[in-house]
C-alpha cells in the first residue's frame, strides 16, 4: 500500500507539496539545506542547495518558489537555481529558525518559527504579504508545524507540536485575521507528536506523526481518529495530496534522532513515500506574485 517514491537519507525531510503544472513533488531536507523536486514517474530528482537550513517552501504563481531559510525569506528561480532576498525576520533571535508553513487560499505565505534547541516558547507564526510586508499572528510558539484550511476557507487548523493538539482558528480569508482558537484534536502521547498536516476533500485532517511510524486521519468536528497508516520510518514529518487525480498522499520522513538500531530496522527513514487513497485533497495554494513595496 505504501510506495517508496524516492529512496533518500534525508536528515529531516519536510514541507512536501505536489506541483500540479510541473507534475513534480517538491520537498525539503531542512538539515541537509536542500530542496528536492522529484518526478514520481521517472524517479528523477533535482536538488537545490542553500547556505542555511531550509524551513519551508511554497510555489509562486509566476514561477519559482518562496523559501523560508533560518531567519529570512528568499525567492528561488527553479530554472537557474539562483535565489534573491525577499525579507529578513527574527534576525534578533539567533536561537530561533523557521520550520514550517504554506500559502493560504488568498495567496499569503504563512510561516512559523521555533527554538533551535530545547522547547522554549520563543517562536511565532507570521503571514507574509505580496508587498513583502508581514504580520505576526501568533506568539509564544514552541515548534510551529502543521497548518491547513477548511474547505470553506472559514477555519484555519494549526499545530504547535509539543502541545500534541490541533487548534482551529476562525479565519477571515480576505484579511488573514485569525481569532477564537479552539482545541479540536488531542493526539495521545503513545502516537508521537503531530507534525505536518493537510486536509482531504471530505474535510478530514491528515497528520504526520513524529515518533509514531504513521500518518493519521482525524475528524476535526469530533476529534476522533479515523485511521492510521503505518509508514516504514519512525519519524513521519509531512504529507500532501497530489498526483494526476489528487488522490495520492505524498509523505516525508526523517533520520534525525534515530539510533543505529532503529536505522537498521527502518533503513528507508529519510525517504519520500506515497499512498493511493480513495479520497483526494485540494491542490496546493500558490503565492501571489511578489511586488516591491509601494509600487
Mean pLDDT: 95
- Runs with pLDDT <50, length 5+? none
Rg from alpha-carbon coordinates: 17 Å
Helix content: under 10%
> What overall form do the CA principal axes indicate?
globular
In short:
The protein is an all-beta fold and 295 residues long. Helix content is 2%, strand content 51%.
Layout of secondary structure:
Blueprint: E1 2-6, E2 13-19, E3 24-29, E4 34-38, E5 45-49, E6 56-59, E7 65-68, E8 72-76, E9 83-88, E10 96-103, E11 109-115, E12 123-128, E13 134-141, E14 144-149, E15 155-160, E16 165-171, E17 178-186, E18 193-199, E19 205-210, E20 214-219, E21 224-230, E22 235-242, E23 248-254, H1 260-265, E24 272-276
Antiparallel strand pairs: 1-24, 2-3, 3-4, 4-5, 6-7, 7-8, 8-9, 10-11, 11-12, 12-13, 14-15, 15-16, 16-17, 18-19, 19-20, 20-21, 22-23, 23-24
Polypeptide structure, described:
With 295 residues, this protein is mostly beta strands. 2% of the residues lie in helices and 51% in strands. The protein has one helix and 24 strands. The strands form six sheets. The chain has a four-stranded antiparallel β-sheet, with no helix packed on it. A four-stranded antiparallel β-sheet has the order 2-3-4-5, with no helix packed on it. The relative contact order is 0.18.
